[in-house]
């Protein structure tokens, strides 16, 4: 339990502090804003994709080949974390924020809550992130029993590596989409959420269209193969989601409260996942996939709303500018 509490703190830091530091450092050095999207895409491609595959293979080597036991991957992870800490301490500059505004923890949380409540775009972004990530983490627990309902012998490591390859493909697609000035992230993410929603409906469809096998053991079934295709499609959507949501967070969340607001978003996410896992045995697995599919479709509706209001301030500013020019025009006349 102590380990999980510390792990929760570490996860919150992992998903907020690094991104906040990167965005602040990026703009402090005067880099082009478009480069930020490319950095996010490469981070997901290399970090969530390639490194995940290599880590899985290395962990398998430690446990199976070298017979060092199931704890050995955790020990190896601690070594790599120590190396990362040394690199960060020696080469990164600290981001202290605005030192003139020294706020305690409670004040920061209150400020973040007020910001979320007063800005519809930030509230929508938080809801979209919670719905998608909640469905994604639920999928992590469901894909294994979905592919082996009768204790079939499935190649877990190979399937996981395939999922990671699909995620890498998605992040590669995202980098190309984000590089286009004519393509808005708010627009194409609506399509991505609909595709991800449809992909998680496959377990339900195969349950009705393909006669389930009642034979215990054996290899992966035909229905399982179809589900793997759907799951790979979902993982590709995950690969597109990460750099895209990072891009939108850098656009809409204010710098002074970015880390606090991002951690606020994780509260409903963790509650959602806990509720799902607590009741995972109370409902059939098809019901759980159907629920995730509905949540993803709701995310697409909220994304459509975000796209609709995303340009409103720009439109209002342009109207005010035209009105001001019209007022100044008689004064400038000869």
UniProtKB/TrEMBL annotation:
SUPFAM superfamilies: MFS general substrate transporter. It is found in: Cell membrane. The keyword Nuclease does not apply. Its main location: membrane. GO terms for biological process: monoatomic ion transport. GO terms for molecular function: molybdate ion transmembrane transporter activity. The chain crosses the membrane at residues 40-62, 74-92, 158-179, 191-209, 221-242, 263-279, 285-302. This is Molybdate-anion transporter. The keyword Transmembrane helix applies. Mediates high-affinity intracellular uptake of the rare oligo-element molybdenum. It is a multi-pass membrane protein. GO terms for cellular component: plasma membrane. Belongs to the major facilitator superfamily. Phosphate:H(+) symporter (TC 2.A.1.9) family. InterPro entries: MFS_trans_sf (IPR036259), MOT2/MFSD5 (IPR008509). Keywords: Cell membrane, Ion transport, Membrane, Transmembrane, Transmembrane helix, Transport.
